[in-house]
Design goal:
Largest sheet: none
Shape: elongated
Protein name: Anti-sigma factor NepR domain-containing protein
Structural class: mainly alpha
Helix content: over 70%
Radius of gyration: 22 Å
Organism: Harenicola maris
Number of strands: 0
InterPro entries: NepR
Order of helices and strands: HH
Length: about 55
């Protein structure tokens, strides 16, 4: 690797970083489907019931 390659690699790394941040921020803003949240509620209730029996 030559010293001329370093700035190019830095730009590539910055581009990848920014792209990943954008993708994950978009995912974070998405809401879960109602079916998933309903399932999680049922599973939590079952878990609480099992913990109460012990």
């Amino acid at each position: 690797m030559t010293s001329r390659d370093a700035p190019k690699k830095a730009r590539i790394a910055k581009y990848i970083d920014e792209s990943l941040k954008q993708v994950f921020s978009e995912l974070e803003a998405d809401t879960m489907p109602d079916q998933i949240t309903d399932l999680l509620s049922v599973l939590r209730a079952q878990d609480d019931a099992l913990k109460g029996k012990k």
